[in-house]
Structure formats: structure tokens, C-alpha cells
Specification:
Number of helices: 4
Number of domains: 1
Structural class: alpha+beta
Distance between the termini: 30 Å
Radius of gyration: 18 Å
Helix content: 10-25%
Low-confidence stretches: none
Shape: elongated
Number of strands: 6
Order of helices and strands: EEHHHHEEEE
Strand content: 25-35%
CATH superfamily: Hotdog Thioesterase
Mean pLDDT: 94
CATH topology: Thiol Ester Dehydrase, Chain A
Length: about 150
Amino acid sequence: MSEPTRYFEDLEIGEYAESSPQVVTEEEIVEFASRYDPQYFHMNPEAARSHPQFGEVVASGIHILAVWRQRDHEITGDIRWICGISWDDLRWNKPMRAGDAVRARAELLDKRVSASKPERGVVVYRYALVNQDDEELFYCTSTNYVERREPE
């Protein structure tokens, strides 16, 4: 991966990006759940059929976040991030199922120079992971620090 090139000053409120799709497999869902979230409806296809809401294996919410983060690097990996500060309004709207072709979305909602650390910018993004039907599986609002090119 190349060195990120976009600084705080390069980011524009309202800019929007969407990643290419990634197809999620049942094997991937089961493997992730077996390691990180071993609930029957994430890792046992037969037992998951009796689940009152899903009726099949679905990805763990943590797996959804991991896939989103991977896809997000495709669209925001060129930004000179310092670190995240918070995630707000985090929601899982729909399950991620085997066969879903998911894409990350990022929209810059707000930006300002940090009052306490003026060498940094503060940016607020709305992030989402959507499936092939354009349904949001997850979304959140994220506040992050970004390097400034020209600190005051």
C-alpha cells in the first residue's frame, strides 16, 4: 500500500465514495464466528435453521465491521489518518448473509481544525456497509483526527 496523500485541507464536506463489492461466503462467516463469536446462528448451518429471526447462518456484527473496514480502506486509504475518536449512532439494520455482495460507503459530513491540537483536523464521516440490494447492513457516524498539511 502506498503512502496516504490526502491531508485535512484536501477533504471536502459532502464528498462521497463507494468501494467495489466483495462477495461473502458461508465458509467465511462460519470461520470468523468460530474464532471470534461462536454463537450457533453464526457458525452452525443446521442449528441456525431454527433461529427465530434469521433461519440461516448470518455474519456476526463484529464480522460486518471487519468486512466494512477492509472495504473502507479501498476508498479512504489515501487519507492521512491519525486515529479515530468515536463511533456514534452505530446500528446493524440487516444481517450479512452468505452470497451478499457488500460495498463500503463513506460520506464526509463535517470538518474543523482541532481546538486543542491545531496541528490536527477533526473530520466526521457517515460510514455504511450495503448489500447488492442497496440495503444498509450497518452504519455509524465516526469522528477522527487527520493530519494537517499546514498547521497553524
